[in-house]
Amino acid sequence: MPYAQFALYSFTAMFLLVLAVILTVIIGQRYKNSRAPRLSVRAEVIKKRAQVTRHLHWGPSLPHSQKRVTYYVTFAIDGGQQLELWVRRRVYQQLKQNCRGTLTFQGTQYLDFQKAPRSR
After folding, report:
1. Is there a contact between 36 and 90 (Cβ–Cβ < 8 Å)?
2. InterPro entries in the record, alphabetically (predicted)?
3. Per-residue model confidence as pLDDT tens digits over 74-88
4. pTM of the model
5. H-type alpha helices, the chain
6. Which CATH class is domain 37-120?
7. CB 40 within 8 A of CB 110
């Protein structure tokens, strides 16, 4: 087998292996989340962070950069435990630090946060 053909097969095999591992991890996490109990607990928003990643793509003529922002919110659950969850941008913008309420989640998946009414 010529070297070029071997290199092409090797690259294809490695690409498929990496893709299979990524898909296995994603599907496994979704499966674990679906089997986890849905919990609603009293919690407080203690930290928010946005993680920015940039990707460089080469087009037909020029490279262009693409930015992706992933949003996380850390909740302090009654009892002292902290839980960081991925949230959508809209949720990230709505939640304010030090806000208290009821957090609903399933496994590592954020479902909802109902703000507690302010006491007077």
Report:
1. no
2. DUF2500
3. 999 988 899 999 999
4. 0.73
5. 3-35, 89-94
6. mainly beta
7. no
